[in-house]
Design brief:
heterodimer; A: seven-stranded antiparallel beta sheet; elongated; B: mainly beta; seven-stranded antiparallel beta sheet; three-stranded antiparallel beta sheet; 1 helix
Amino acid sequence: MHNLFRAFASALALTVTVNAAQAQSASMNATASVITPLVVTGLAPLNFGVVIQGVAKTIAWNNAASGRLSIAGFGTSQLALTFTLPATLSNGATTMPINRYRIRGNGTNTTAGATRIFLTSGVPVNRNLVGGNLFLFVGGRVQPTVTQQPGVYTASVMLSAAYTGL
Amino acid sequence: MSTSRKIAGVLATLVAATVAQAQSATITATATVVTPLAVTGTAPLAFGNVFQGVNKTIAFGDATSGRFSITGFNTSQVAMTFTLPATLASGANTMPINTYDVRVNGTNVTAGATALAVTTGVPVNSNLVAGNLFVFVGGRVQPAAAQAQGAYTGSIVLAAAYTGL
C-alpha cells in the first residue's frame, strides 16, 4: 500500500513537471518618446524691391532681403520639408515669372555656414534639426518683361515641415 | 490579436501621430516693377564770353544754366551721382570751374527748385515727382589774368539709379 501511494505521487509529480515545462512566457517593453511639436515660422519676406522693366533681378539666399523661415522642434530630429514655390508673382491679373530659387539651411540664424538644399516645389526633402532648430534662407530671381506692367507683385512661399520619425 | 497585427496597429498610430504634427508657415515674395529711368541732358551750362582775370558765375536760375531731366516711376527715390569737372579745357590749356549750384524741381521751372548738396562722385538722393525730376546746374569759372584765349569745355555727367525706396 505504501509503495502504491509513492508510485501515484510520482506520477502526479511527473504530470506537474511536464505541465510546468510547457508554459512559456516573455515580456517586452512598450516605449514611446513624446516630443515637442514642430513650430514653423515665417521670419522675413523675400523682397526684390524695385525691379526695372526688362531687367531680371536676383536676390541671393544670403542677401539681407532674402526670405527667412525658422523651424523649432526636438533635438536633432529629422524633418521632411516641403516647399511650395510659386512660379509667378501677381499684380491683379498680371503675372511676372519668379524662378531660380536658392534655399539653404543652418542650425543657427546666420547665413554663414548654411548648406544648400536642393529641392523641387511640392517634393519633400529631409533635413535634421540642430539643437532643436533649423533656419532656412530663400533667394530667387524675378524676370519682368520689357513691357511688364508697373506695380507691386506678390506671391506666397510656403514651407510645411513634419517629423519623419528618425 | 496576433503579434503582427499589434505591431501594425502601433505603426499606424505612430504614422498618424507624425502626420498630425506637420506644421507650415508662409512668407511673401514681393517685387515692385517700375519703368526704367531716362536721364537726358537738355541744355549746356554756357558761360558765354569770359574775360581774362574776371570770374564769371552762371546761377542755376539763369537762362544759360545747365539742365538735365530724369523720368521714371511715380515718386520713386533716385540716387544721383554728378561728375563735376574741376577745370574746363581748351587743348592743353585749362581754366578752373567750381562753386557749382545744383537744384532740382518736379517741374521744368527754376521757381521753387530746391538745392542739392552735391559732391562730385558722391550719390545724393531725391524723389521723382509724378515720374519727373528736373535738374538745374549753375557754376563759376575763374580765368587767370593770362588765360589763353579759346573755347573751353568740360563734361558734367549725371548718373541716376533707383534706390528701391
